[in-house]
Amino acid sequence: MELPSKRGLVCSHCLRQDSPSRRAPLYPDIWRATQGGAAWQHFYTTCRLKQIEHERPSRDMAVPIQQLTTNNEGTHNRERVPFTLIGRKEKCGDTLYEKRHYGKANWACITVHEDTYEQSICLGFMKLMRYICQQNSSGSYLGLTIPIVTVVRTDDAHSVLSRAVTVAYYLPTEHQARPPAPYDADIIIEEWPATIVYTRAFPGATNEQSIISEISALAEMLELPALCLNDSFIVAGYTNPAAANRQNEIWFLEQH
């Protein structure tokens, strides 16, 4: 698999379209629940602390952010990236890793080069959210999918992450044939080829230390790690990044 190499308007998906001020929330109950919610607050605080002031999420984006990163029980309502399970390795009833086949698909990708991984995913995620909400050639809300993935690069020893991080969003099935063009020139629609992926689940926060640790752990479990070890890996996030029980996966892509 070949990995993918402006400030915008606020999201209007959650705004009431017939409101004169266009500031009234479309779903008042959800709005009240989410404008102070953990997911929105996580991204707002992260952008502020990481000094990405111009990309801090407005409260208009609270509803779609919360929908994307809501509790674990809600994730089944969102379209998942489709795959075929080829096999899994287990030990004492626990799954160590899975081998999957992912088909060819279109992804919206943005590559950022901030000082830290947290800064990069914050900036990339907020730009993608604007594309998903309305800043696209269809002028419509595209719908949320999981996981949101980040492509990370490492040094040859797999001990240090590169500053270049690609954040990617899988286009929903209805938009796969004709992906809406992004208004943000930094976002590129990439067709990712079909590939074999070795994936291992892990809980908790994702940062430079945890990612390097998970890369090392999966490499030790694989019978033939040389088949998929290079300088690029994928981190897949399924749940609220502010949650203590966050669900993630590390992906190794089989080389051809």
From TrEMBL:
InterPro entries with a match to the protein in the record: Reg_factor_effector_dom_sf, SOUL_heme-bd
Family assignment from sequence similarity: Belongs to the HEBP family.
One Gene Ontology molecular-function label: heme binding
Superkingdom, natural source: Eukaryota
Gene3D superfamilies assigned to the protein according to its UniProt record, in alphabetical order: Regulatory factor, effector binding domain
Organism: Scleropages formosus (Asian bonytongue)
Protein name as catalogued: Heme-binding protein soul3
